[in-house]
């Protein structure tokens, strides 16, 4: 039986009322993402973004409520180009948009100045910027979600001395906050361990020709060259080492552990490049293979260096919002400081400066141009 004409307007009004009530019961929480979405490091920025995106989708499936309202998580991605000036502009844009939870930056050179703006704006920043200065600003809600340069640089010096049994090394850095920081930490630990640092050179994060530096270093016969910098420079550097017959290993931090190294360096990286990355071996982590399969199904590619930590920290934030029944970053941050979260890449628990209390590190080399884990420490 058809409803009467007098009932139709009433039914329409009730439908609108229910719809508006449902709408009123939903609250949007925007998660900001800042990273290099263009330029030579875009592969890393996109990987970070995908990690956050996957976590947001999983959080929305959990149907978290705060104060009786369903939380709808949304992503706002911004391209900071790994450039401090662009990064500060992005930070201001996110603060103007009233974003209270920010994932990134990827580059330490962006993270250091941007952290001040996020603090002033009352936002939480969760970064993979490894330079120790990132968490020395005294800001309450800045979290480093992986190992720092102190741990990564020192671990590579220890690996060079104790596992590779090397005696002489040279150091090159790219003058970025990350490159200088990790190179300094490597050098400090190398000196402690009695390694002979035969030379220190520097380049830029835009350079592609390293023949002059490598020719100079070749004469000093280091058994390894530690490069503080990123894959877009390290890949060509490995090729040029091969062309110049520089018989040395190429060591580096987490940024060299990317598949991008194999794409740029070709077979020159095989059994030559050794790098240390924060996190445990994903394939051996309890939920690592399932995460990789899920990521591949969703995005059509394998997770790179930091997809899992970005995913984990976003999930930790979501869980803390649920526990505190609040979207206030200060309340959520206080919960994160006192709690711990078992994620895909490790267990997240932070000291009073926002550094991970125990950050596992995995050393990789390359086989068939692909990064292969050797051991976790």
Notes on the protein architecture:
- This protein has 377 residues and is an alpha/beta fold.
- The chain has 2 domains: 21-147 and 284-345, Rossmann fold (3-Layer(aba) Sandwich); 150-278 and 362-376, Rossmann fold (3-Layer(aba) Sandwich).
- Helix content is 44%, strand content 21%.
- The protein is built from 12 helices and 15 strands.
- It has a 7-stranded mixed β-sheet with strand order 8-7-9-10-11-14-15, sandwiched between helices.
- Helix 8 (231-243) packs across helix 9.
Features:
6-stranded mixed β-sheet; 44% helix; 377 residues; alpha/beta; Rossmann fold; single chain
Task: Detail the topology: elements first, then pairings.
Elements: H1 7-24, E1 26-35, H2 42-62, E2 65-66, E3 69-79, H3 84-96, E4 101-103, H4 108-120, E5 124-127, E6 142-144, H5 149-162, E7 168-173, H6 177-192, E8 196-202, H7 211-220, E9 224-228, H8 231-243, E10 249-252, H9 259-265, E11 273-278, H10 288-299, H11 307-324, H12 329-338, E12 341-342, E13 347-348, E14 361-367, E15 370-376
Parallel strand pairs: 1-3, 1-4, 4-5, 5-6, 7-8, 7-9, 9-10, 10-11
Antiparallel strand pairs: 2-3, 11-14, 12-13, 14-15
Helix pairs in contact: 2-11, 3-4, 5-6, 8-9, 11-12
